[in-house]
């Protein structure tokens, strides 16, 4: 063994013990005639010391150590004279008898410490060095712990972990597929799975009534902080269940994770909200309920007063920003420019200041009396000292803009503590969404989602207005404004599935080509079933108090979908192209 203990293990109780440690040199420094070395592994840091009276060869070796040298060090645990309360091993140090250099290191391109001096691009290029830093080690340890507890919980609930294929059939209906050419079947392609959706349904048909998998999934889509082209899902499916069974099972899983990982008790039961209420009051289907500032419709109160902007809009909504009545004109002008950004899309912003003395000041004073401004403010839930912010336009679009503004004000007011956890189930989504541009319906969730049983008559109607009223038997798990998971009760009858394809404008021939295997499977006694999938990377990030998932993935891609460490994606040579019967029309990359 290269070591008797790790660098995070020894304590004052070990004083007098002879030990051997191995790890990386964090830093080395000389003080007087003594040399101090901080030795690091993934368990922690231990200080080593070479006394001024030590053997000259040992002193010379200690003096030659550079950052990130890999060494083996043997000595005796002694109590530190100057203790370091910031690290668990801070009460002791190792008085060295020998050092063995196992491997030398060139000077790393950035400091491998809690807070590195390396930029994001540089650390991505040397990801294997960045992974030595304690914050990333804690992130990946958290990921491991969460996966462990998930498996324990689901195993106790009689779930079986079953792997499904990575090379499947392309069925583009949502995000773009990653495709893989087949050498053995020239001119044909596999797709990498966006999820194991059809396979887990087939497992229900096969009688495996409780399936799960912590599985890699792939989507060729534009990236942001919470997305990667390859990501991990906690994928689950259950037979002979209704919506209530699924929600109760996975409420239990999330409650267990919070208790086991963070020692946090969450709401029991977790509150539920319809999709329609989420949009009306929060402007989002993943509302952050850690703070109030709900959206209120004030259309009737502002119409007909001569302000043409409001009079010409079908919907006017407002939020009340707590304690912001003291905003200066400059601050309000800056906020107005903020809502005009493409990410929000508003044309302007109207405000009402609810002053502490009971008076009201507004950007539309000449159109509204103080009494009318007071009525609007009260309808928005405002109190003295608050700032009412109003937007107008088409209803859903305006609510969405107000939802974005609400989150921004929540950030500015410090109302979004990452360790204040407010979980929520969002239920009763519309089953379909209509595209004016394409003149057709799309599935709000996916084409295997069942309608609510009480909406079956509407589901089989030929009227567009009836189909727009159909609710899906679907549900999302939302935490702090982030959708962590979603699922539904599935269609398990061939006729109902064929009706879904008909509504979505998928021809029988196209449906048979893309989904014939599952349609046929439903003819052989498919049980009622449903499930959901959680975004595992997102779960890890939120449990770690972060918005980005990158630190919780060992080797992530950047915003262009590239791994700059291994320089991927890259071109393949002509021999491989010929074997796969491929030709490239892309321009040659710049040298």
How would you characterize the overall build of this protein?
With 591 residues, the chain is an alpha+beta fold. The chain is 29% helix and 24% strand. It has 18 helices and 22 strands. It has an eight-stranded mixed β-sheet with strand order 6-9-10-22-21-20-17-11, with helices on both faces. A five-stranded mixed barrel has the order 1-2-3-5-4. Helix 4 packs across helix 6 and helix 15 runs antiparallel to helix 16. The longest helix has 23 residues. The radius of gyration is 30 Å and the shape is globular. 34% of the residues are buried. The model has no long low-confidence stretch (mean pLDDT 94).
Write the layout of secondary structure elements.
Elements: E1 18-31, E2 34-41, E3 44-50, H1 56-63, E4 70-79, E5 92-103, H2 120-125, H3 127-130, H4 134-156, E6 160-161, E7 179-181, E8 189-191, H5 197-205, E9 210-218, E10 230-239, H6 243-262, E11 272-274, H7 275-282, E12 296-297, H8 299-302, H9 308-311, E13 315-321, H10 329-339, E14 350-354, E15 360-362, H11 370-379, E16 387-393, H12 395-412, E17 423-427, E18 432-435, E19 440-443, H13 456-459, H14 464-467, E20 474-479, E21 482-489, H15 494-503, H16 508-522, E22 529-535, H17 536-543, H18 574-579
Parallel strand pairs: 3-5, 6-9, 11-17
Antiparallel strand pairs: 1-2, 1-4, 2-3, 4-5, 7-8, 9-10, 10-22, 12-13, 13-16, 14-15, 14-16, 17-20, 18-19, 20-21, 21-22
């Amino acid at each position: 063994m290269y070591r008797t203990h790790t660098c995070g293990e020894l304590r004052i109780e070990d004083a007098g013990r002879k030990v051997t440690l191995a790890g990386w040199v964090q830093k080395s420094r000389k003080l007087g005639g003594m040399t101090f070395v901080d030795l690091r592994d993934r368990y922690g840091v231990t200080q080593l010391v070479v006394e001024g009276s030590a053997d000259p060869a040992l002193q010379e070796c200690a003096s030659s150590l550079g950052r990130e040298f890999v060494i083996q060090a043997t000595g005796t645990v002694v109590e530190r004279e100057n203790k370091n309360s910031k690290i668990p091993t801070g009460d002791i140090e190792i008085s060295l008898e020998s050092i063995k250099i196992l491997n030398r290191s060139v000077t790393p391109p950035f400091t491998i410490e809690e807070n590195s001096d390396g930029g994001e691009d540089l650390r991505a290029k040397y990801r294997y060095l960045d992974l030595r830093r304690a914050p990333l080690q804690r992130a990946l340890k958290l990921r491991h712990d969460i996966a462990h507890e998930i498996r324990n919980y689901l195993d106790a609930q009689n779930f079986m972990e079953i792997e499904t294929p990575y090379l499947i059939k392309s069925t583009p209906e949502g995000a773009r597929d990653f495709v893989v050419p087949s050498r053995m079947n020239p001119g044909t392609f596999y797709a990498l799975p966006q999820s194991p959706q059809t396979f887990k349904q087939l497992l229900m048909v096969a009688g495996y009534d409780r399936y799960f998998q912590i599985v890699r999934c792939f989507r060729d889509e534009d990236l942001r902080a919470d997305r990667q082209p390859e990501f991990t899902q906690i994928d689950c499916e259950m037979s002979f269940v209704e919506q209530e069974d699924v929600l109760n099972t996975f409420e239990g899983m999330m409650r267990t994770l919070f208790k086991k990982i963070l020692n946090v008790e969450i709401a029991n039961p977790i509150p539920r909200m319809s999709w329609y209420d989420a949009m009306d009051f929060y402007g989002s289907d993943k509302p952050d309920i850690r703070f109030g500032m709900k959206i209120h419709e004030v259309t009737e109160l502002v119409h007909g007063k001569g302000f043409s902007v409001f009079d010409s809009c079908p919907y006017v909504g407002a939020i009340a920003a707590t304690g912001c009545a003291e905003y200066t004109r400059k601050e309000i002008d800056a906020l107005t420019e903020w809502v005009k950004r493409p990410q929000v899309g508003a044309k302007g912003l109207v405000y009402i200041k609810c002053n502490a003395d009971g008076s009201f000041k507004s950007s539309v004073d000449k159109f509204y009396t103080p009494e009318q401004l007071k009525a609007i403010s009260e309808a928005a839930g405002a109190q003295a000292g608050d700032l009412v912010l109003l937007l107008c336009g088409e209803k859903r679009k305006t609510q969405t803009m107000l939802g974005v503004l609400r989150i921004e004000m929540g950030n500015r007011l410090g109302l979004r503590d990452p360790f204040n956890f407010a979980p929520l189930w969002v239920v009763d989504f519309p089953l379909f969404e209509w595209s004016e541009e394409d003149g057709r319906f799309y599935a709000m969730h996916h084409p295997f989602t069942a309608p609510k049983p009480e909406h079956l008559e509407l589901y089989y109607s030929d009227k567009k207005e009836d189909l727009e009223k159909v609710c899906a038997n679907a549900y999302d798990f939302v935490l702090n404004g982030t959708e962590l998971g979603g699922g539904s009760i599935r269609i398990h009858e061939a006729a109902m599935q064929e009706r879904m394809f008909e509504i979505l404008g998928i021809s029988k021939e196209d449906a048979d080509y893309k989904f014939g295997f599952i349609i046929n499977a439903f003819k052989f006694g498919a049980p009622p079933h449903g499930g959901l999938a959680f975004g595992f990377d997102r779960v890890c990030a939120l449990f770690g108090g972060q918005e980005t998932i990158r630190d919780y993935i060992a080797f992530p891609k950047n915003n262009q979908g590239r791994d700059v460490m291994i320089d991927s994606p890259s071109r393949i040579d002509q021999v491989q192209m010929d074997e796969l019967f491929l030709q490239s029309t892309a321009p040659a990359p710049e040298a």
